[in-house]
Specification:
Shape: globular
Low-confidence stretches: 1-29
Number of helices: 9
Helix content: 10-25%
Structural class: alpha+beta
Largest sheet: 7 strands, antiparallel
Strand content: 25-35%
Distance between the termini: 32 Å
Length: about 400
Amino acid sequence: MFGALTGLALTAVPLSTAHAASAATSSAPSKGTRVSAWSPSMTTGGPSFTDQTIRMVAHSSVSGSGARITLSNRYSTTPLDVSAVDVAVQASGGEATRGTTRNITFGGSRHLTIPAGEEAVSDVVPITVSAGENLLVSLYVPGTTGMSTWHSDAFDTTYIASGNHAGDDSAAAFGTTTTSWYYLAGLDVVSPTARGAVVAFGDSITDGYHSSTGTYSRWPDFLARRLGAGPGPQRLSVVDAGIGGNRVLTDVPNLWQGVSALKRFGHDALGQPGVKDVILFEGINDIGNDAGPDGRPLTVQDLVDGYRTLIDEAHAAHVHVIGATLMPDQGNGYYTPAAEAIRQSVNEWIRTSGAFDGVIDFDRTMRDPANPAALDPAYDSGDHIHPNDQGMKAMADAVDLRLLRS
């Protein structure tokens, strides 16, 4: 959902089963259900690090204990050597709450090497987190990593220090900040109340583009807060599996915008611990770039076939899929009369086909009542395609919680 594209080719990386396999075999520290609490989708093309500590914020969508983290080298071409990983409750910024820092081990070891294309899930860590609370995860890489596996658009702050400062409570050594996540691909916990996870799967609108940094104003964040507000205990965690610029059918030439939904859905959505429901909200980048399979122009049937493939995969895994209609974009560079005709036809299929287990009509919620081809000005961030924070909340409020299996 961004402008210029490069001509680089993207190579698919073999599917890792680290999430699913480890979720099945890990013991729980207490009664409850292990669910994914936070898990950004990763891509290739990140920067290299040398003798540095990377401290990142993981914003938990649910309360739980017995945390585990996932480190991903899935989209890198060289092994990743990590000498120390620590987790702590965030006090503010890059500063940890004193006394909360815990060492993280992998198979009982503080040091690990993750082969290219693979992931590693940690041992259970004795730390408790509340819904909406932030943990700081710090990893020290002693050598030179080469191109990193990352999530480019975090809309949160990451802190970087030279040398090993993984166990520091203070943020004094962390003199550099970025707004991306590196290698850190998941936080899961044992929740005493949640019975599963809902995965919001999509592109930059789901990723939170134009939402305020560090305020957790993406629509999946607002949805998590709705689920936590009751009545009753929170029954589902929420995972944001959005990637800016991502497409359903084809890989994006910009490496950091990810392999297609068809390639990543099994891992990023169905591989999440405890997944019960997926909200599938993607396709506007396929339409806006007229990006059909095999380099040909896009048709409505192409997108429908892509959706049906994802639905079939989810149902085979006993996961429900809720389809979300594509929002209007008149005024944005994506808009043409031909593209609008495809969007309208795709939305009609989503609403009426019965292929999905439920439908969320984001189009109806977000469009301008006076001009249905455009976003409501009250919800427009200014580029006529991405919502502002108020619009993100309106999207979350449009989700009928009865559609979610809890």
